[in-house]
Write a structure and sequence with these properties.
Blueprint: H1 4-9, H2 32-43, E1 62-66, H3 81-90, E2 95-97, E3 104-106, E4 114-115, E5 121-125, H4 140-152, H5 159-162, E6 165-172, E7 175-180, H6 187-190, E8 222-227, E9 231-236, E10 249-254, H7 258-266, E11 272-274, H8 279-287, H9 289-292, E12 294-299, E13 304-309, H10 319-328, H11 331-337, E14 343-345, H12 360-365, H13 370-379, E15 388-395, H14 399-415, E16 420-427, H15 429-435, E17 443-448, H16 460-463, E18 467-469, E19 473-476, H17 478-481, H18 489-500, H19 504-521, E20 524-530, E21 532-537, E22 540-541, E23 557-558
Helix pairs in contact: 10-13, 18-19
């Protein structure tokens, strides 16, 4: 999955990008209650909003408020959360997921691909009744052009395909043939990525850096009506080939703060509030839902949060120390104190939304198992006269990670006084992530946004390594860029096997083995997953977050 330079480049951007590490943050305030008090004070109901949402209720249009931003709508360069949501509603893909499920089904394709015996050649039959927003007929040449442009223009997500595809060609008017460099069983799922949408060859061109950030001409159920930094408007595509949206359009208002989003929604000036409210604001909206007359829609998330343990720095090169750290972590405590129950404990880097996910860290270490941790540290030679010193780093702009780090510190030092000392450190986010692969930081609090819905995207980016050895660790590749420097010949072989395996049951067995290896070797410690929340006024129907984490606009209606 990784060519290191492009892999790193794609992950070092703004706080609400698909950038895998780090999110919003303030400095730790000694008492957690004080911190929550400040959050509530900044976002409480008495603070007036200075931002006015786009009107639309009278027309039956749906108004959505968010603090997420859209840098670009060019599918060859968009690699952030919010543009991905917009592209998912503005465009179509070869494959998508049946609403409400994780079942991959054809969309612009008419069937699942035919795969050659060696797993390299994918033949995909295409629909013949699709027209793009500008009237261009959709066919295999249009799809091939769009994929080549995605790979060749050098955008942030280009590596997703360029690392894997050898060639793409129209082998008939409505047949696309894609040849891979190496077998990749998750390839159909990758083709559901939001940027895998056809665009008009009449409006776009292939060429390094040739992007169109503020327009979109594709094939989806909505057309882009207007695009600005503070407001985005989507109109219904009257010539859409598929099921028409249930509403006449979407008006999106982008807010500069969670406080303004919170207050504007509470006054009824928005139909929907989605991303990103502070924990106390979410709790307040949940408490007031009956009185306020709004709906609370809660969903799981596929974003994972974890600790990366740098095996190149002593004493983390000692397996017993890494295992002891895994035993010290008390996830229910974090959920209670940090997230007010708005998170889920995580016991594998593969989220439990996948059937293959196994709670391997819970089985091996439990939560806050300080008896086990003390035994492991004693075996490793640590004592009150020779204490273990742990250094945990996080990006200075991340309030959540500051609170998590300090909660871990208090919990560990209280349970193991004199045996373990935890030092909490932070630095500016860009500096932190630029230096992760250099091996500077012992322990980092990180998160990971998957590119597509498949277990592979939670395995290879963590355990894979292109160059290294058991003695020196990973010198180039995924685990080096992720800060653990984990290297295992067996892991690399198993990753290659699961990527090539077309039999789902056989592939699941390999993935289960990789999860066990992760819990045994402990290059990372999974911590939590946030819950996803949408708040909708009582008169709005059809609001839901898909199991794959997409937010579909076309199902929403006004009573």
């Amino acid at each position: 999955m990784v060519v290191l330079a492009s892999w790193l480049r794609s992950r070092l951007f703004s706080p609400w990008s698909r950038s895998r590490w780090g999110r919003r943050t303030l400095q730790w305030v000694g008492l957690f209650g004080l911190c929550l008090g400040l959050v509530l004070g900044c976002g409480g109901p008495n603070q007036p909003s200075t931002e006015t949402p786009t009107p639309g209720q009278a027309e039956g249009r749906i108004t959505i408020g968010t603090t997420l931003t859209a840098r670009t709508l060019d599918p060859a360069d968009a690699y952030e959360t919010f543009p991905g949501i917009l592209l998912y509603n503005l465009g179509d893909r070869l494959y998508t997921y049946r609403p409400g499920t994780t079942e991959l089904v054809p969309q612009l394709a008419t069937a699942m691909p035919t795969v050659s015996a060696d797993g390299l050649i994918y033949r995909i039959p295409l629909r013949q009744d699709v027209t793009l927003h500008d009237g261009t007929p959709f066919n295999a040449e249009v799809m091939a052009f769009s994929i080549r442009r995605f790979m060749e223009n050098g955008g942030r997500p280009a590596y997703l395909l360029s690392d894997k595809i050898q060639s793409v060609e129209a082998t008939a008017d409505y047949e696309l043939t894609i040849t891979l460099k190496t077998p990749f069983a998750a390839f159909p799922a990758l083709l559901s990525f939001s940027g895998m949408t056809p665009i008009s060859p009449a409006s776009y061109e292939i060429g390094t850096g040739q992007f169109k950030p503020d327009s979109f001409i594709g094939s989806g159920p909505y057309k882009l009506a207007s695009f600005a930094s503070d407001a985005i408007k989507l109109d219904v595509n009257e010539n859409y080939w598929g099921e028409a949206p249930a509403n006449p359009g979407i008006d999106i208002q982008i807010f500069t703060s969670p406080a303004n989003l919170y207050n504007t929604f509470r006054t009824g000036a928005l139909d929907i509030a989605y991303q990103t409210l502070d924990p106390e604001q979410i709790a307040s909206l949940e408490r007031e839902a009956d009185r306020g007359g709004w709906q609370v829609i809660q969903a799981g998330t596929n974003v994972i949060n974890y600790m990366s343990l740098n095996q190149k720095i002593e004493p983390l090169n000692d397996l017993k120390v890494r295992q002891a750290i895994a035993a010290m972590v008390d996830r229910p405590l974090l959920n209670e104190r940090v997230f007010q129950g708005q998170a889920e404990p995580l016991y594998s880097l593969i989220p439990p939304s996948f059937e293959v996910s196994k709670p391997v860290f819970k089985e091996a270490y439990g939560d806050g198992n300080f008896t086990k941790a003390k035994s492991l540290l004693t075996e490793a030679g640590f004592s009150e006269t020779n204490p273990l010193i742990l250094e945990i780093w996080y990006p200075s702009a991340s309030t959540i990670r500051s609170i998590v780090a300090n909660t871990l510190k208090e919990s560990i030092e209280t349970a193991l006084p004199g045996l373990v000392t935890v030092n909490v450190q932070n630095t500016e986010g860009a500096t932190l992530w630029q230096n992760v692969g250099k091996g500077i930081y012992p322990i980092i609090l990180s998160n990971w946004y998957p590119d597509f819905y498949d277990p592979d995207t939670f395995i290879q980016p963590f355990l894979g390594c292109e160059q290294g050895n058991a003695a020196q660790g990973c010198e180039q590749g995924a685990s080096q860029a992720n800060g653990s420097f984990f290297y295992s010949t067996a892991a690399n072989q198993l990753i290659a096997q699961q990527r090539a395996e077309q039999d789902p049951s056989q592939r699941q067995q390999i993935i289960a083995e990789l999860q066990t290896m992760m819990a045994t070797e402990v290059p990372y410690v999974p911590l939590w997953q946030n819950k996803d929340y949408v708040f909708a006024q009582a008169g709005i129907n059809g609001v839901a977050i898909e199991p794959t984490q997409q937010f579909l606009f076309g199902t929403m209606t006004r009573r």
